[in-house]
Design a protein that fits this description.
alpha+beta, two-stranded antiparallel ribbon, 2 strands, 38% helix
Length: 64
């Protein structure tokens, strides 16, 4: 996106440096990853999917 010169670090690069497994979709496409209770979304287009995963995680906790 041409922001490497503008921001102090790119989140993806920093996460990889720290040993994270980073999964992505093409630019502007939704992408959601759930790892246990952690739910992450790639961008604003991912919000509906993040909400769905979050509700699913909460329902699983409620059923325990």
């Amino acid at each position: 996106m041409g922001l490497a010169e503008t921001v102090p670090f790119l989140l993806e690069s920093r996460l990889r440096e720290l040993g994270a497994k980073f999964e992505s979709a093409p630019n502007f496409q939704p992408k959601v990853v759930r790892d246990g209770r952690l739910v992450t979304g790639q961008n604003p287009a991912s919000v509906p999917l993040v909400a769905r995963e979050l509700l699913s995680a909460l329902e699983e906790l409620r059923q325990r």
